[in-house]
Amino acid sequence: MSALVDLILGVVTSIGGFVEAGSISTAAQAGSEFHFQLLWAVAGATVMLALLIEMSGRLAAVSRQSMAAAVRERFGWPFQFVPLAGELAIDLLLLTAEIGGVGLALKLLTGIGFQWWIVPVGALVWLILWRCGFSAIEYGLGLLGLVTLSFVYSAWRLSPPHAPLVHGLLPTLPSEHPLRYAFLAVSILGATVSPYLLNFYSSGTIEEKMTEEELWVNTTTSYLGMCFGGVVSMGVLVTSAVVLAPHHIVVDTYEQAALMFVPVFGRWAVTLFAASLGVGCLGAAVEIALNAGYASAQVFGWPWGANRPRADAARFTAAFSVVLVAALAVALLGFDPLRLTLLSVAFTVVIMPLVVLPFLVLMNDTKYVKKHGSGPVGNACLAAITILAGLFALAVIPLEVLGGG
Amino acid sequence: MRDAFVRTAAVIVLATATASASAGCASPQDTIQQQQEKLQSLAASAQLLTDDYLAGQVSKTYAATAFDALLLQVEQQRAVVARPKMLADAKAAALSQQAEALSRLLAQMRDDVARGDAAALGARRAGVAPLPGRQ
Fold first, then answer.
1. pLDDT tens digits for A215-242?
2. Structural domain contains residue B7
3. Which of A127-141, A149-163, B82-96 has the largest mean confidence?
4. Contacts of A252 (CB under 8 A, 6+ apart)
5. What is the ipTM of this complex?
6. B99 within some domain
7. Which of A35, A255, A348, A397 to mutate to test the interface with B (most CBs of B within 10 A)?
8. Which domain holds residue A113?
């Protein structure tokens, strides 16, 4: 019964961390510029994420080690240094963007500039991290994140034509702006397959003491939960395509994006959009900060855990606090959160091969996964993801220069 | 195995840097086209925002905030086409003037919202001429 409750909660709350500044902004841009044509990118990135999340959860449940700890043990410090530095740098950028996203959501509601909200939002994030255990963070913020289902409701109420929707699930070349199209496709991937999600999920598996016998819970949560999140991202894309694209509005600001809700929600449109953006970004900010603590502590071998008394994991607490303070400092410089989000998404794609590559080895090493290693299909998927990640990593910066807008 | 991974990491970093360097920058004509489309999008956003505001669908607070954001975006786009190098091109010069006009109009519309002057806002809405761009 407990496992079933965990399963349902796990699936439903998977939205927390999945639907945030990156996925909302890239999907809104994709819909407004290319109608339904980039739905395949959301679907593909979701499948990719679900595969990697399932593997990171399986590895953690069987080996009792998180991804970061297993990579450090298997490959050693010199290899781990690059992905750790990359992950912390991306965590910092993403955290800044998410805090800015919450600030912008509050600005939409109050008219008060987003910079004024940075410190209060940072304090709220830190308070949540200081006071709450893992389950409260994951389930509490995940349940609040259900407000983002308004994107799905909106897409459904707008009754988009079925044929172009189905057509959008198959990759096709655009009639114009191919570089922009490619940039957005790669950005959607970067916004979806965030390294922090993988390590956060594997750390959560350990926090929740999932065992080898409960691997079915991990498998079901990973696939259903990520699909649930993917459907919300598709809801953003479809709503944007139906409402904004006919007006030739390209989403450059969240203020423009908020208009996509007006036809369905009327006077509640801006409030609902702000709530979806704010809650999504707040959930992601908490998870990213926590992951910065997890990754640092696991790599350096410090005691860690959101369920431990903070005094028993002082360096873990210090690590997430330092990253949070650094993100607040960057956010206070006044960077446009939307642009920062797109930049962090591009950097995520650059380091993605280094994040994905270790899976190929770890998921076939019986020391870590015992008899639960990846079969031929799993290995083929991993190899394909690794090759794709390498190609995207090479392409993303030139695409950012030429098609980033 | 460890060395292989370190080598792979180095190759990825180097290749990315090389590819980025070789990508270079967009041509002036591409930049003009891009800015034209952005301005068209911002003008269309102002029209939609005005329609929603006049229909009572969005609040005064949000409308004022959104006009501010649009104004900022137009100014950023104008700065791109108003560079001395770009202004030598007649298209860029014309676009810069269109952007300036749009900028002024948005500032006035923002004031209309602040004053709650729906009639003036409605009249100005008609003046937001859609710029030629992506169809």
1. 998 999 899 989 989 999 999 999 999 9
2. no
3. A149-163
4. A338, A405, B38, B41, B42, B73
5. 0.87
6. yes
7. A255
8. 2-403
